[in-house]
Amino acid sequence: VGTEDVRLTISMRSARVHEADSRPLLAVPLDSPEDLAAAKEVVRFMYVQALSPGVGPLQLLAVHRLAQYLLCASCAAACATTLASMADAQGVDEALALKVFSDLSLAHVLEDKGLAPFVEACRDLVVQHFSCTLVVARREKLMLAFEGLSAVGVVQLLAPSNSSGGSSGDGGLPVDCEDTVLYLLHMWALHNKPNADAARQLRKALRPLALSATYLQLVLPQLEWLGLSAKDVSNECSMVGGWVLQALHILLDMMIVACSP
Fold first, then answer.
1. What are the beta bridge partners of residue 6?
2. C-alpha to C-alpha distance for 94 and 105, rounded to whole angstroms
3. pTM for the full model?
4. pLDDT tens digits for 32-79?
């Protein structure tokens, strides 16, 4: 395989000797039979230092994952570059974008910084599909599509770093108010029954301090799937109360200054 830095996670117990020429055959374990085509593409790249022509985006994602598994850095980089070029050339369509944000087997793609240009292109298309949080909440068809997203996909769309201040921010779904975000998260949870890890991820998409007093004090404590303890909710309420009190003090000081002769 030349000088390529490849980790062959080889079980020596699986090593065999070819009957014809006595050359060793080394078995590289894969997760599933479906990985075989991607693995062959990685091995091909080791020899020719180029990807096969006409490889589609889904195949490239599979090859990228296998290349990382085998520590074939140049192959993974070539996949990322090709995917970024596809994104720039508008070679990514809405159906593909929704699949990336929905398919659990592709959840790792959304968190891979090396694929950021491709993920951003997909996110832009998904945002166009859903429009904004209020539209999703009001349209049954969009709600069903939203419930089909992966937990990582939901966080990518709704996390405060992506959609703050009621705008799309750096590419996230525009938010009308945080109460709607909590409603969407709850509907997703009712449909998907998230485990503790998924619930922990979903909490990244929520800004409790931006919730209305009603949602914070009455609705949030009822959502057991979020995994927030009574103490956590109490702390959030206290922080909101402290912020409101501080704001009132500032407003009062401003009024006193304005009324001073």
1. none
2. 18
3. 0.74
4. 777 888 989 999 999 999 999 989 999 999 999 999 988 899 999 999
